[in-house]
Design goal:
Layout: E1 8-12, H1 19-32, E2 37-42, H2 48-52, E3 62-65, E4 68-73, H3 75-87, H4 90-97, H5 100-108, H6 112-126, E5 138-142, H7 146-162, H8 167-180, E6 185-191, H9 195-212, E7 216-224, H10 231-241, H11 251-278, E8 283-286, H12 295-311
Parallel strand pairs: 1-5, 1-6, 2-4, 2-5, 6-7, 7-8
Antiparallel strand pairs: 3-4
């Protein structure tokens, strides 16, 4: 299914490939279809507020654009809120979670901080308004970089496997059922058209499908660009670059053109490897010459993504 038609989407990939950009573009594309969206970041140095040109996003859910809310989940705050959501009785919550010995144990237990954030996001995916309608049509989790992102995805299954029957295991089972259902949830892979990110994406895809057996709902290639030269032009540039008698005033131009030919060749090879290895057609987000994206660029990226989703 298309990511905009799901209930819960994990956005994962190597650090620096543009997961936050892809999350924002997907959120805008879904919001343009009239969906209510929550973007949940995992204790990160968030860039979303600068891109959307809104107030900084902290541990409280904040409106950031029409039909879009966002939250930067932090372990301590998420643990506190998750405890309240699970126990539902304030006095019982205080007795357990505000006990200094219990608190120290919880925050010292591997995986529970991650589960608190993931459990919070999963709770909002099923949250309802007083009239019985869903608060959000789509929850997007902007996951940490690959290694930590995989750890986050593993947590509910680990809890299901090792935790005794009770509230924690029950909620983990509910979450795992959601995450494993391809009609409701999916993992969106994000990469760059470069060799190292491509290698890591292929490995990440194998881990998610073979080990975790979670559904993949798409692949986004960020920073993609159209080839500037056709094959004949590229060959001519290569001949000029190897010509020892090239006039000095032309050399900088030829060198620059050859660099572009090399970059385009690498990009095309990487995209083809991804297309073949993952057996899916990538979604492309165009490359912008500016280093810092703003709302106008995000709207353009969202439009490009939306058009590709419609065609798919």
């Amino acid at each position: 299914m298309s990511p905009v038609d799901l209930k819960f989407v994990f956005v994962v990939g190597k650090g620096g490939v543009g997961k936050s950009v892809a999350s924002a573009a997907l959120a805008l594309a879904a919001a343009a279809r009239g969906k209510r969206v929550l973007v949940a970041m995992c204790n990160t140095k968030e860039r979303l507020s600068r891109m959307l040109q809104c107030d900084p996003i902290g541990p409280d859910i904040t409106p950031v654009a029409p039909n879009i809310d966002a939250v930067n989940m932090q372990p301590v705050a998420a643990m506190r809120e998750y405890g309240r959501m699970v126990l539902r009785v304030e006095a019982l919550y205080k007795m357990i979670f505000e006990n200094k010995y219990v608190s120290a144990f919880l925050h010292g237990t591997p995986g529970l901080d991650a589960w608190a954030m993931l459990g919070k996001a999963q709770f909002h995916a099923g949250e309802q308004l007083p009239d019985g309608s869903d608060r959000y049509d789509l929850v997007i989790v902007d996951a940490p970089a690959t290694g930590h992102g995989l750890d986050l995805l593993r947590v509910p299954r680990v809890i299901v496997d090792v935790a005794p029957p009770g509230l924690l295991r029950r909620d983990a089972e509910k979450a795992w059922a959601l995450f494993s259902d391809p009609t409701r949830s999916g993992v969106l892979l994000v990469t760059l058209p470069e060799e190292m990110p491509t290698n890591e994406t292929l490995e990440l895809h194998q881990t998610i499908t073979d080990e975790l057996q979670l559904p993949i709902c798409g692949l986004v290639v960020n920073g993609a660009s159209e080839a500037l030269f056709d094959d004949a032009q590229a060959q001519a540039i290569e001949r000029m670059a190897s010509d020892g008698a090239l006039q000095p005033q032309l050399s900088p131009w030829v060198t620059t053109a050859r660099r572009r030919v090399v970059r385009d060749t690498i990009q095309q090879a990487c995209v083809q490897r991804l297309r073949t290895g993952l057996r899916m057609e990538p979604l492309s987000l165009p490359r912008f010459p500016t280093g810092e994206l703003r709302r106008a660029q995000l709207d353009e990226l969202s439009g490009a993504l939306s058009a590709q989703l419609d065609r798919a």
